[in-house]
Design goal:
Layout lengths: L3 E6 L2 E6 L5 H13 L3 E7 L4 H9 L3 E12 L15 E2 L6 H11 L11 H8 L9 E6 L2 E11 L25 E9 L8 H15 L4 E7 L3 H9 L3 E13 L1
Parallel strand pairs: 2-3, 8-9
Antiparallel strand pairs: 1-2, 3-10, 4-9, 4-10, 5-6, 6-7, 7-8
Length: 251
Amino acid sequence: MSHIHLSRVNRGWVIRCHDHVTPAEFADTITTIRAAGGGNVRWFVCEPTNDERACAAHHGLQADAPLLHMRCALPLNTTHQLPAGFVTRPFRAGVDNQAWLAVNARAFAAHPEQGNWTNDVLIERLAEPWFDPQGFLIHETDGHMTGFCWTQMHDHSAEHDHADAHDDLATHDHHGSAPVGEIYVVGVDPSHHGKGLGRALTIAGFAYLAARGLQHGMLYVAGNNTAAITLYESLGMTVAHSDDVFIGTIS
């Protein structure tokens, strides 16, 4: 039985391992990717061995910033309040698609997977059994979408995997059987940076999850995203663990 889980993410691939893997196992996965047309690859590994690092290098994958899993207790401390007048509304499937895709593309222009979402990809995600439109929060300024916070609930009845989120991961938290609320992806139109929208949207997302009765919150963030990490730490989040990330292109 393979320890490798391979997922297609938009135009690329994500590899995650449930245990340490052998060079042969990893080579088979690379062969599968190449046979399917190749593409950008991200490999997430918890505490990689020297053999696994050698595998990555052998197939042209280079170390990237680690992926941090951060978590917090819900509700957030009462000092973390929304700004006066800050309002969100639920996402409207079929109505907001194009506006959201445009904001998402601008917010994640440098991100190889999240920034390349198409309407077909969005429709697939909206059809997932976990999708909750009330938890897909949209913020507008003067009638125009300027930011969003998409949340997700995990009940641990099964492992949930959505490696297409803005930090490219398979979501899997451990709090026994207690449900966990996740900030799936949060984004702000770059033209509205510096206004505190990212902080307000994150608070709004966790407030929504807390209102659903959840006591544990989580998200994932790239280890080199200093601004985001600082924001999340200011809300009381701490790093639970991190994965090494290797990236490259298979052709």
